[in-house]
Amino acid sequence: MKNRAYTWKGCQSFMPILLKKIIFILIILVLQPVISLATAGKASAQAADSVERVDTTIHYDQINVTILIEGLGSYNMDVIYTEHALLYVHVEELLKLIGIPCIIGQKGDSVGGFIPPDNRPYFIDNKMKQITVAGKRSTADQGLIKDMGSLFMESSLFAEFFGITMTFNYRALIIIFKSNFELPVLKQQRLERLRSSISKYQGEVQADTTIHRKYHLFRGGTADWLISSNQPWQSSVTNHFETGLGMELLYGEVNITASYYDRQKFDMHQLQTVWRWVDNEKKVIKQAQFGNIPLQSISFITAPVVGAVIRNTPTTVRKAVGYYTIREHTEPNWTVELYINNIMMDYTKSDASGLYMFKVPIVYGYTTLKLKFYGPMGEERTEERILNVPYTIMPAREFEYSLTAGILENGMSSKFGKADFNYGVNRFMTLGGGVEYLSTISGNPTIPSARLTLQPFSKLMLTGEYDQHVKTSGILNYSFIKNAFFEIDYINYTAGQTAIPFKSIEERTVKISLPVNLKKVNGNINFDFSQLVYKGFRFNQGNAVISVYYKLLSINTSTHINWIDTQTPYLFSDLAFSYRMQPGYNFRVTSQYNILENRLITTKAEIEKRIKRGYLSASYERNFSFSTNSVTFSFKYDLTFARTNLAASYSNGRFITSQVAQGSLAFAGGHNYVHASNNLSVGKGGLSLYPFLDLNNNGIFDPGEKMVKISSVKIMGGNVIFRKSDSTLRIPDLIPFTSYIVEFSDNDLDNIAWRFSKKRYSVLIDPNQYKRIDIPVIAVGEVSGMVYLNKDHKANGVGRARVLFYKKNSTSAIAEIFSESDGYVYYIGLAPGDYVARIDEEQLKSLGLKSDPPKRDFTIKVSSDGDIVSGLDFTLSSE
C-alpha cells in the first residue's frame, strides 16, 4: 500500500475541485425557486423521504491514519471519523490488504466475497443498508457511508461480522488491528516460508528451550480409514476398504495398514507392518527398521520385502552444495511436495499437462526421496513415490553404512541382502560400494558394486557405478546457467545378466532444460533424446516440451517422436492449456494429434468449480481413433472428519458410479481427547500445549494453578486447533523425529501483566501420539515513581534519568527505563522476587549529581493479576 502525504502540490490540485463545488452551490441557490415550482407536484411521501434523509445526515472528516497489523507491518489508510466519535474504514482497501476476497458491485454500492477460515459468504449492500453473512441478514442504517465512490463501514461491524477488532487512538492516529482467525495473507506467507525454506531443520533458528524425544514402551494411537465403492450398472459392485493403525511400541514407531477388496481373497500382501526406531544422537546405529521395508536395489524386485534395515545415517537433512533436476508427470494443476528423509524441502505445481520439475538439493549421506500430491481443490493423493537418488555426497572423512536383509513375498521366499557404505575422501570426492544378494538370480546371485562421485564445483556433478555381472553406468550433470542444465546418462548392461530382465544392451540419454523468463511469461523448455540398443535393432525416442505460464493461463505443448532404425517414425503432439477463471472456476483442454497422418487422436475438455469445502467438476472426452465418447461428473466435499467424493461416468453405453470417503482419528492418550480429521494420521505426530499461570515461577504445572487462554501460536508446518472448553491447544499432522519451532507472543495474552516464561520452543515430535508440553505463564509486576531535581531548594521532575533494576544481591541490571519529561517512572515486566532500583551511577557521575536515596529495595509479590509497587522516588542534587 502506498503511503499518502499532504503537500502544497496536493493542495494546488485540490483548489480547482473546491472552486467547482462553490460554483455548483451558487447555481443551486439561484435556481432553487425554479426547482421548487417544478417539484411542487411531487407526492408528499417523497417530501417526507427528503426530510428523513436530511435528519439522518452524518457529519464527518476524512483523515489519514496508520494501521498496525501484527505479522504484516504498518500501513497508511484513509478513514472517516464522525462527530459522534465513530470510525468508518474503507472496506475494499482493508479486505484486499489482509487477503480476504472481495468483489465490488456496480457503482461501488456493494461488496461481496467469502470470510475465512470456513469461507462464509458475505454481501454488503449500501443501497439497502444491509449486511448478509452466511445467509443471516442484518440492518446497518448508520453503519455504511459512501464517499467519493468508495464504501466505508463502521469499525464495530467488522468485529461483529468479520471477527476483526480495530482499536483507534485518535490522539496518535493509530489503529491496532486484531483478528480471531489467521489472515489469508499471513497464511499464504506462512505456507511459502514452510515450503521454500529448510532453515529450521538445519538448526539456524535459536530456541529458548528444547523439548527432546521421549521414549515409551507403549504410547498413543492413530487410525486411518477409507471406504470406496464402485457400481458398474451392467456388472457387479466392487467395494474396497483400507485401515491403518499407528502407535509407539518398544520405543519405536509402529504403523500397520491393511487393504481389503470384496472381489478378491485376502492375502498377506494386503497387510503391511513396519517398526522404526530413530535416535540421531547415537553414533553406531541411528536408525533401525523392521517389517515391510523400502529398497533402493540394483536388482529388479517385483514383490514387497519383509526384513530389517540398520543405518548410522541421521534423519536430519544435511545440505551439501549443488542441485540436480527431476522431471515427472502427475495430474494437471496439482501441487507436488518434495520430501527428503521425511522432511519437506520444496513444492511446485504441475502445468496443464501434469508436468512438474524440481531442483533437488544435494544432501549428505543416504537419502530417501518422496513425492506427495495434492489436488487444486484441496484433495490429497495418498500415493508416495520413492525415487532412487543418483548422487551420494559425504562430508570429508565421514563414513556411513546401511545394512539390509529380508525375504521377498513372491511365493518362493526369495532371500535378499545388501550392505552399502559411503566415505567422503575430500570435499569434492566420495567413494561408495557394497554387495547385494538376491537368491532368485541364476548364475551370479551376489553383486559387488563400486561407486565414485565427483563434484569439482557446485554446478558440475559426475558419478560412475560398476555393478559386477550386471551393468556399468555414468551420469554427467552440468548447470550452465540459473535453472538450466545439461545431462548425459549412459548404461552398458553385461551380456546375459538376469538381475534386470527385459533390458537392452545399452541405454544412451541426453537431456537439456532451459528456463523461460519473458516479463510476465515464465516456464521451461525441455529437450531429451534416448536410444536403446538391442542385438538386432535400435529404438530411438525424442521429446520437445514447452511449458509456460502467463498470469492465470498455463500452456503446455509437447512433440514426441520414436522410430526403430530406418523405419517410418511415429510422430505426435500434445497440446494442453488451463485457465483459472474468477470466481473459483478452472477450465482445461487437452488434445493429442498425429502429425504424420494429419488427424486428431483424442481431445478432452474439463471444467471445475470451487465451492465451500469442495468442488464440482465435469469433463468430456472424445477418442477419434476408437470413436468413443466419455462424460464424467464429480462432486467432492470435505467434512471436518472425512473427505468425500461422488462420481458418475458414461462411456459408450456403460454407466458407472462411485463413492469414496476417508479420514482418520488421533487419540491423545491420557488427555481425554480424540482428534477426527480428513487428513491421514498414521505415521504422524502432534502436540498438546497446556498454557498455565505459573504462580510460584517453578516452571511446573502444579495443583491449584489455572489454565490460561491464548489466541495465537506460531508453528511452521502445522495448524493450531484452539479448544475453548479447557484452553488446550492441539497441533496435529506433524512429522515424527523432526524438530519444530513453536513460538508465543505476550500480545496474545488476555492480561497485560502476564508474560511467557519462554517464548520459543524447539520440539522433537514423538510418533503416532500427542506430545504434552506445559507452557508456563508468569504474572509480572509493575513499578512507578518519580525522579526529582533539587535545585535552589525546589524539587522539580526531571526527564531522561536512567533507572536501573537489579535482582537482589546481583550486580547485573535486568531492566532499565528513562524517566519521562515530568520525572515520572513506570515499568512493567518484573517477575515475582526481591529487587533493587537505582539511578545509573555513570550518568550521575557525568552530570555531577548524587541520588537520595542511592537505591530503593522493593519486592514483587506473587499475584495472579501482577503486583503493583509505587513510591520509587529519587531526588537528584549537586554533590
List the helices and strands and how they pair.
Layout (H helix, E strand, L loop, with lengths): L7 H31 L5 H12 L4 E10 L3 E10 L4 E4 H8 L3 E3 L5 E6 L4 E6 L4 E4 L2 E4 L4 E4 L2 E5 H8 L1 E6 L4 E6 L4 H13 L12 E3 L6 E15 L5 E12 L2 E10 L9 E8 L8 E6 L12 E7 L7 E11 L5 E6 L2 E7 L5 E9 L5 E6 L5 E8 L11 E10 L6 E12 L2 E10 L7 E12 L2 E8 L3 E11 L2 E10 L12 E13 L2 E13 L4 E13 L2 E12 L5 E12 L3 E10 L4 E13 L2 E10 L4 E11 L4 E9 L2 E15 L4 E5 L7 E9 L20 E2 L5 E2 L6 E6 L4 E5 L10 E3 L3 E5 L5 E10 L1 E11 L2 E4 L4 E6 L5 E6 L5 E7 L2 E7 L1 H7 L1 E4 L3 E5 L7 E2 L4 E5 L1
Structural class by sheet pairing and helices: mainly beta
What is the radius of gyration? 35 Å
Number of strands: 62
Q: Outline the low-pLDDT stretches.
A: 1-56, 196-204
Q: What CATH first level of the domain at 781-878 would be assigned?
A: Mainly Beta
How much of the residues is beta strand, in percent? Answer: over 45%
- Portion in helices: under 10%
What's the CATH architecture of the domain at 781-878? Sandwich
Q: Distance N terminus to C terminus?
A: 55 Å
Count of helices?
6
Q: How confident is the prediction overall: mean pLDDT? A: 82
Shape: globular
Enter the CATH topology name of the domain at 781-878. Immunoglobulin-like
Q: How would you describe this structure to a colleague?
A:
The longest helix has 31 residues, at 8-38. Among the domains are: 1-53, no CATH class; 781-878, Immunoglobulin-like, CATH 2.60.40. The protein is 9% helix and 55% strand. The strands form 9 sheets. It has a 24-stranded antiparallel barrel. β6 and β7 (130-133) form a beta hairpin. The radius of gyration is 35 Å and the shape is globular.
